[in-house]
Amino acid sequence: MAYSNDLIDAVRQAADIVTVVSSYISVERHGRNYLAICPFHDDKNPSMTINRDKQIYKCFACGAGGNVITFVKNYEKVSFPEAVRKVADLVGFSDPRLVEDAPKIHVDESKKKLFDCIAELNAYYQYGLSVPEGQVARDYLEKRNIDETQQKKYGIGYALNNGELTVRYLLSKGYSLKNIEDIGIVFARSENASDTNVGRVTFPLHDAYGHVVGFSARRLDSVHEKKYVVTRDGALFHKGDLLYNYHNVVSSARHDGYCYVLEGFMDVMALDRAGIPNAVAIMGTALTNEHIELLRKLRCELRLCLDGDEAGQKGMMKMGIQLSKANIPYRFVDYGNDLRDPDEILQQEGKEALKAKMENLLDPIDFQIAFYQRTEKLDTPEERKRVLMGFLPFVKSLPLGIERENYIVKLSKITKYEPDAIRALLAQETPKAETREGAVYRVDSDIDTDLLHPEKALLRRLMIAEKTILYYMLQEPQAVEFFKTKVKDFTIDVYEEVAMAILEYSDAHPGKVDTSGIIGLLESKESEDSGKAAEVVNSLAFEKNHVPFSMKLLSDCLDTIVEEKESIHKTKEVKQALSGDDLKSNAAALDAYAKSKGKNWPKKKKGGSSS
Fold first, then answer.
1. Which of 130, 377, 575, 580 gives a 20 to 30 Å CA spacing to 233?
2. pLDDT score, position 449
3. What DSSP state is assigned to residue 38?
4. Cβ distance 343 to 305 under 8 Å?
5. How far apart are CA 414 and CA 388, in angstroms?
6. Is residue 467 assigned to a domain?
C-alpha cells in the first residue's frame, strides 16, 4: 500500500521548503527568492533558486528541481515514501497513516516462519553473551576493542556450549525441528540435534532489507578445528548474495557519495571505530553478479580495499574489471608495501593513521602502474610488451598534453621502453583517416531540405503550442477547463502525462492549481515517465517569457495544434508514397505535397524551364 495523495499533500503543505532545505545546506535570501549552492552537481556559484511562494526549487546549471519532498528524496537518495516520512519527521508532522500505510518490505510468506525463527535465535545468542558463560566471548571482544555500542549495533552474540539447549529453546518457542534445520544451525533432524555454532562468538549476517539470514561464528579456543563456521547455504542464506553491513550503509553511502569494500567484518568494524561508517565486506568470496547489483544500487563511488598482499591486490584489480564492465565508479586504496589489514592498523597506530591510509586513493590506472612497479621485475621482452600493450588503450584515450605525457613516463619506468618508443607505438595505433565513404554524405539539390524531414518543423510548432497551453494550465484554472473541454489530449507524450496529472489534481482540488502539489503527485508514481513529467512541470513553473493569459491565446494554440496534426498526417502519407521505387509515383507525391504547402515547386531556373 502506498501513501494516499491527500496524505502526501498534507505533509508537503506542513513543510516550508526554505526551512527544510536550510536544514541540509546553506540558503541565502535574494529578493523574493532564495539562492543556494546546488548539492546535486559540482557547483561553484549559487545556481539553485528556491521559490517560497510556489514551494519549489530549481538549479539553473544542472536542471535539478522539484518540491520539498523531491529535494529530500534526491539529497538523501531514498525512495519517495521514505522522503515523505523524513519530511514529516523534520517538520514534526504526525499522522497514523504514515505508519499504517507505509510500504511494507515484501517477505515470502513461505519463509516468514524461518525469518522469525532465526531472529529468535539471534536474540538467544545475544542473551548468551550476557550470562556468566559468555565472559570468554566478552573478553575476546574487549581484546579486539569492540565495545558494547558496536556489539549492539552489529548484533554480536555468543552460542552457549550446550547446543542441545539452543534447539530446545527454539522448540519451546513453537518452531519445528524442520524450521531449525532450514535456518542452517543443525545438520540433521534427530532427538539429539545440537547447534553447530556452540562455544563461538556469533556475527549475524543480514540481507539487503536487514533480515538476519545466517551467522559467521568465530572459535574462542584451540579445540574447534575451524576458525570460522558460516551458515550453510539454504532457504534463507546464500553467501554469494550478501555483503556484510550493507543494510546499515545504504542511506549514508548514497548521501556521502562513497562506500569502502573490504575483506571481512572485523575490518568494517575497525573503519566504523575510526569514524568511517560507510563500509561493506565481501567476507572472503569473489565478487558475484548479485554483489555487483547491490553495489550499483548504492549509486556512489566504491573504494576497494582488500588484503595488502599480492593476492589481495590482484583480487582488487580483478574486482575493478568487473565494476568497470558494470559502469560503477571506483578507486583503489593504495596500501603501498603495508601488509596489515585495517583492524591491525587501527590497533597498532590509532584512528588517524587508519583514516589517512583509507584516504590514500588511486584511480585504477595509477594503482595498476604502482602495483607493477612494486611487484613485477618484467625481465623478458615478452613480459614488458604484455604490460605495455595492456596500458596502451587507456593512454591512447587521453588527449595530447601533460596527462598523457605523465603516463608515458610512468609506463617507460616500469616497462623500460624509451618514452619515444612508446610515443611511436601510440602513433602507429592511431586510427586511419576517415574514408570518403565513411564521411558525412552531403547532397546538393534544389529540393527544400525540410521536404525530406518536414515532420521535424511541424513537431516544433506543435510542441510550442502544446507547451504554451500546458504553461497556463499550471497558472489558471480556466486553462485547465479549456484543455478538458476543447483540447482533450496532447500529442507529445510527456506533455500528456503532465496534463493528466493536472486534471487529477484539479479533480481533487476544484478551482485550485498548485505546482508543488502536481509535482508531488507525479513523483509519488515513482516511474521514469512520471519523473520526466515532474521535471517538465518544474521547468515550466520557472519560465517567465510568456505573454499575459487570455482565452484567445489558448484558442490560437488549439488552432495550431489541429493544423499541425493534420500536416503531420499528410507528411506521413507522402513519406509512405516515397518509399516505393516508382519514380513517376514519387514525383506525383512530391507535387501533391508542394501544392498542399502552397509552394511553387520545382523551382524555375533562371532563363528557362524546370528540368
1. 130
2. 33
3. -
4. no
5. 9
6. yes
Asked if the structure places residue 375 within a domain, the reply is no
Domain that holds residue 125: 109-237
Say how far residue 108 (Cα) sits from the centre of its chain. 26
Contact 364, 324 (CB under 8 A): yes
Q: Is 102 exposed, middle or buried (0-12, 13-18, 19+ CB in 10 A)?
A: middle
At 221, the pLDDT band (50, 70, 90 cuts) reads confident
- Give pLDDT, residue 513: 85
CATH number at residue 170: 3.90.980.10
Average pLDDT over residues 568-597: 56
Same structural domain, 91 and 113: no
The residue assigned the cell 505508519 is: 99
Last residue of a domain, one of 72, 100, 128: 100
The mean per-residue pLDDT over the stretch 192-218 comes to 93
What cell does 444 get? 546538393
Indicate whether 295 belongs to any domain. yes
pLDDT in tens, 319-376: 888 888 788 899 999 877 788 889 899 999 999 999 999 999 998 888 888 877 777 6
| Domain's final residue, options 100, 120, 142 | 100
Structural domains counted in the chain: 5
Classify 593 as helix, strand or coil.
helix
Do 208 and 246 meet the contact criterion of CB atoms below 8 Å apart?
A: yes
Element (H, E) at 254: helix 246-256
pLDDT tier, 431 (very low <50, low <70, confident <90, very high otherwise): very low
Q: DSSP assignment, residue 51?
A: E
| CATH code assigned at 52 | 3.90.580.10
What's the pTM?
0.57
Are both 464 and 562 inside the same structural domain? Answer: yes
Task: Show the beta-strand stretches assigned E in 246-343.
Answer: 258-262, 279-281, 301-304, 330-333
